[in-house]
Design goal:
The complex is a heterodimer of chains A (365) and B (316). Chain A is 26% helix and 34% strand. Chain A is of the alpha+beta class and 365 residues long. In chain A, strand 11 and strand 12 form a beta hairpin. Chain A is elongated, with a radius of gyration of 25 Å. With 316 residues, chain B is mostly helical. Chain B is 79% helix and 0% strand. Classes of the chains: A alpha+beta (365), B mainly alpha (316). The interface between A and B is large, with 46 and 31 residues.
Chain lengths: 365, 316
Amino acid sequence: MSIELRNVSKQFGQVRAVEGVTFTVKEGELVALLGPSGGGKTTVLRMIAGLETPTGGDLFIRGERMNDVSVQKRNIGFVFQGYALFKTMSVRENIAFGLKIKKWRTADIEARVDELLKLFGLDGLGARYPHQLSGGQRQRVAIARALAPKPSVLLLDEPFGAVDAKIRQELREWLVRLHHELNVTTIFVTHDQEEALEVSNRIVIFSRGKLEQIGTPRDVYEKPANEFVARFIGVLNVLELKVQNGQARLAELSFPTHGVPEGNTLRIGFRPYAVQISSQLGEYRYRATLKHIFFLGVLLRLELETPSGLTIRTRIIKEEFNRLGIAEGAEVSFQIREYRVLSREGDSLSAEVPVAQLVSLAEGI
Amino acid sequence: MASAAKSRLNRISRSQRGTEESPWVRAVLIGIALLFSGLFLLLPLANVFAQAFSKGYAHYIKALVNPDTQSAIVLTLTVAIIAVPLNLVFGVVAAWLIAKFDFTGKALLLTLIDLPFSVSPVVSGLIYVVLFGLQGYLGEWLLDHDIKIIFAVPGIVLATVFVTFPFVARELIPLMQAQGSDQEEAALTLGASGWQTFWKVTMPSIKWGLIYGVILCNARAMGEFGAVSVVSGHITGMTDTLSLRVEKLYVEDVAAAFASASVLAVLALITLGLKTWLEHRQAADLARAQAVSLEAEDTDAPPRASTPSDSTAAAA
């Protein structure tokens, strides 16, 4: 194991930024720290780097306790959110900085810088200054500078935050390729769940300073540990149902009670893709009017309204939609194919309540 | 016909920019500015030299080689040479503290830095007299140990340091605050010590602001009158700075007074020249950088395909 956090906490005055976080990153892994802003993920990254000192718990890198080891001696590469390039130095001097500090021989420095310039597609830009580069180039210089002294860990704080959408996609793919080639243990912070799902081997999800779940992208998407994760990863529609006469009901919809006593509230969540639609009115159980169609590209977002006025949001692939041959205002039938029970106590909005196993239609209704 | 169309075009383009004033407004504004600076700045400056040479070139030289004037010039330069480096160090340290750290008493420190600007220089001088003067709190102790501060060079230096304290710090604080501490942190993660970080990363990035602050500080240090006047004691040939010497001479020999004043004026002009040259260089730096980035084609996309499998895919 390369990096291990045991019950690590960080307090800034009265504010608890990170509380009792425990997780392990294996050698060569590419891990995302994901969460909403203020979740504590950047603080965790900075503690691993040594830019912050934990107020509790232990931090190990390659089995060695690092709490009191200074940032200079941790042998990490850190890429800052705004890149933090030395603006009074050229690209070449920026990349060479760490090597000069570590007193490499001049010839070795030259060779290493040339190698990195080539690897990062920065040939011919060595003499430029940071303000003469585009956003994407700056980011590559920042990563090259961090990697130059051959760190054992690469840490990136919101690496794609400052570049525009089109470049961001390419940079993601490039980071994955780079990690594949160099195989250096990499941890990056992001607030973008899509980015985390796409790029990382594993995702560590934080909210309000606590670790919510750690797992592969598929794990956290398909088996969210709690409602927070379920809502944060992907889109989740939530329904609050009232249990009456042995059925949990909301408008026309009715579900099994899942053990919730009469008169209480059952909360369920479902992904937009779990809604099945048919233009045949008799095919599924419920009826609705197609109110709005939002074009998202390959996907379409549909808004259905039941006769009693309940709105159901779904997503559908364009081809599927074309096959249905429906337009705004059409009458359709629908059903919710699978859903999760979020909580059995109606008043509880707590994220800590574990999410029950996925309930599929066959066993559910 | 073509020329008529062209002139019409010209007229349109001249009056179409929304933020542009009509010609006569511009003329009036420029006129006022020129008149004002001519009347209040250029004319007095010219008068200094006119008066200095009013009794001829020989008298001018004689006034300058007068040993008391020479001593005043030396004292003024000495005070500046001591006070400016002190405030350079104090200013950088204070700005560093305020810009990069959060601590209790930060607001107080900021206020203290501004104190010399808000207090009358005469009061600043009096503070030192009250502290170190014969009747002052520390007067007796100093007398016992034979240390002379008031009516001596140390007092003049102290008063000058006090009065010129804010220049460097005030110049650097907004600059350092705007830069944040990202670059310093980056240097630390690359293995640099605090000292290396300061000299290799912080210093180069505040260079221009620092030089500018030093120039302003120097100008004030050489020109200060009020605070120095209170603490110096006006001992001719010993504790008279140039400013004090000018005042004293004005009663005895107006032309000599203006000759001394012309030395101060020349020092001020040199400072002004340095400042203008610096601003010019900085602007030139910026323009050159922009020219380079304009001609640079934007290769923002990451390098394509560095793995073999990818490059074959790209080829196909």
